[in-house]
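[audit] Reproducing an earlier prediction to check determinism. Same input, same settings, fresh worker. If the tokens differ from the archived copy the diff job will pick it up downstream; this log only records the rerun itself.
[audit] input (208 residues):
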Amino acid sequence: MAATKKKVRNVERPTREEAEAAVRTMILWAGDDPDREGLLETPSRVVRAYEEFFAGYAQDPREILAKTFSEVEGYDEMIVMNDIRFESHCEHHMVPIIGKAHVGYLPNKRVIGISKLARLVEVYARRLQVQEKMTVQIADTLQEVLHPKGVAVVIEAAHQCMTTRGVHKPGVGLVTSRMVGAFRDDPSTRREFLAVIGRTGAGGLPNT
């Protein structure tokens, strides 16, 4: 039985068979023979890999943050998770973006389980991305769902569209930030967050 096609923003999503055929076409375009032994199973492997790389499209980030806890004995200091490693893919060239995210928020009576911060980063990372957009998505989703007093997100990443092609500049990294609420309005709160994630002094960030 043929696989049922799904809609992606009103566009019919290809079946697995069609996706594998597209990979065969790319192999041919690259100049190789998709029917030779070493490449026979490559289309199915690539499609399975893409299912993993882009699993974030099948997840709702707001559902991840739906369960909160209010019994925190009045805790009202910032909560920060450092060095959340992620692997994403550039939406311009579909090559890896590898980095780490630092996520913090000032609770307003409610907190979430600590694993949820890492899962939120993972959902947005496992989509075709632009780092600036991903930074905003993480911060704004946390702010919209949890309604804390403020949210801060800093992402540091290396982009293989720069290191393995184009200008070929290995060793460079891009840093983006999103400050919401108290982190934007209160310089001392912002400085405290930057100190926690190790970006003080010249390595700090502007009011973004």
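[audit] rerun output stored. Observation attached for the diff report: The longest strand covers residues 79-90.
[audit] end
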